[in-house]
# Entry
Amino acid sequence: MLAAGRPQPHLPAAASGNIWNPGHIGPRTAASAGPVVGALPLPPRSVLGENSGNRNVTAKGAGSLKCSVVIPTYNRVELLRHTLNSLVWQSLPKEQFEVLVADDGSDDSTAEMVESFRGRLNVRYFFQERDGFQVAKARNLGISHAEGEVCVMLDCGVLAHSELLRAHLDSHDASDVPLAVCGYVYCFHVNNDFAKLMDQVIDYDDPDLTVAKLKARKLWLDVRETFYGRYGDDIGDLPAPWLNFWTCNVSARTEQLRSIGMFDEAFRSWGGEDIDLGYRLHRDGARFMVNREAAGVHCPHEKDFDSNIAQVSENYKYMAEKYGTPIIQLLLDVGDAVGNLDFFKLNDVIRERGLPRCADYLAEREAAGQTTP
# Structure
């Protein structure tokens, strides 16, 4: 049974919402670094924002492009601008990828800013009316319309190294099995302790230089470095590799994302919807790996640490009730006053306690005629 008062998971099979598609844009030129002057006028807000019906895109399938970059946003126009600008300079040819901006009801100048990239990126903009926190639904809006074989999911405010997209694709191309690729993220922080100093160090116009500088100085490395230092970068054989599938910089095959139902839209507060997706990718056979060449820089911005912890704790309860497996139940003891488990050491706990793989646990319950949540 799901948490009281929580909506049933909504895992859409087809896309809904409105779309503005500026189509394929020509190759990058040095002169294109600034705002496009004389671009086609911005479509009316009714085209960008009102829900006028459904568009079934599943018949198109994925594969006409190599890569679809899905970026959710809400009232973060400047952070989004930095992310889009970094994508302009990707080494991957522009005809091989698209950028899908999924707007969760912004009332700032996000739409107009995205339009300014019309001459520099193959960008599509989607808008959904604001109805509380709906980042899962926003990401699904992008994935549903994706035409690339692989979806790369970035957070608004992540500066992409020029090799980020190519590195993600190289991993998928080299594998005979579906992958869930975790990119590397510098300057990711859970609070505001170093935000001002990070802002001074980051060159927002040159992510490559910033990454090189941070890597050389070993400064503000990926917060998951504790995990990688413990288990290495080949995390596919861990019992719970999905714990690090944070959608600030990850990728998976579009077809597989759709086949498992994409993000669970019952997540209506911060945190957990990404590892929930990672868990289902793992159950569906995706192999997890880290690719440090798929590097990005997380732009500092204000965070409410206490609020985020409270919200993700509730979402962990939801996951525990939804799946009911001993491994998922461990999330309830992360940082708890009684259990006080370290998130990055949960794979050790799983092995020390001899907990069964989730698939085995559920199979045993089914064989015994026991119901699952």
